[in-house]
Amino acid sequence: MRIVRFSINNKDTSYGILEHSEISRIEGDIFGNWKRTGSNLKLENVHLLAPVQPPNILAIGLNYKAHAEESGHPIPPAPVLFIKANTALADPNQPIILPSIAPNEVDYETELVIIIGKRARNVSENEAHNYVLGYTCGNDVSARDCQLRLDAQWARGKSFDTFAPMGPWIETELQADESGIRCRLNGKTMQDSNTKDLIFNTGQLISYLSKCMTLMPGTAIMTGTPSGVGFARKPPVFLKAGDVVEVEIDGIGTLQNPVIREN
Question: Is 176 left (phi over 0), alpha (psi -120 to 50) or beta?
Fold first, then answer.
């Protein structure tokens, strides 16, 4: 099942179920009880929004072996957690903005995102997936100069406005630990991997995080990026105005965002 969040004419934000390019509007709590209203819309006639407004955006670094290697880091013994500001959230097709104070080393990171469906605290790996609403595509956009040289930690470089695009919808039925994942920049494939290569799989991540904090409904967990990121290339490849970034995950779909400079 695919859950979409959308608006019409920039108002009346709603949730719906997407089937064959048609959306059945729903009423109620997507994290609780809801029902279809019988009101159907064409996908082409709505504006897709990020599929949730997460109370927290939790992100995992260095969670693909090849990416840890290209970054010059050893394989981590436990998940490497950082947090992105939820104001970094961006919708499908919304421009990624190169910030005026750090425009020159902005990088893409294609990621599988877990969306938590119900309150989770101290859950085991075996029961972790009982707390998942579904999965979506994400882009952990990063200002590498801030992240790696200018600051003592990662928060600012990961949290500029529009640095967390998500979408285009939530897929509730996915083999999350064996899905193809890739990134294209202006049509050229830059990352191409499979979630089978995650160092810590989705169940392990949910369990680990739930043992240090309560995971509330709507929490977004960005699970890490494969190799092929821009800063590790020779020469480096960073985003520039006019670029288009696509994040594609098999079984979900494609998240696309253009790139512009901040005025």
Answer: alpha
Residue the block writes with tokens 């200002």: 143
Tens of pLDDT, residues 90-141:
999 999 999 999 999 999 999 999 999 999 999 999 999 999 999 999 999 9
Q: What is the largest CA-CA distance in the chain?
A: 54
Q: Cα 136 vs. chain centroid, distance in angstroms?
A: 6
Distance CA 38, CA 34 (A): 13
Q: What is the pTM of this model?
A: 0.97
- C-beta separation of 108 from 230 below 8 A: yes
Distance in angstroms (rounded) separating the CA atoms of residues 177 and 200: 10
Give burial (CB, 10 Å; 0-12/13-18/19+) of 172: middle
Question: Domains plus CATH for the chain?
Answer: 1-49 (2.30.30.370), 50-261 (3.90.850.10)
Terminal CA-CA length for the chain: 39
Yes or no: say if 6 and 44 are a contact pair by the CB < 8 Å rule.
no
Q: Are 102 and 145 in contact (CB under 8 A)?
A: yes
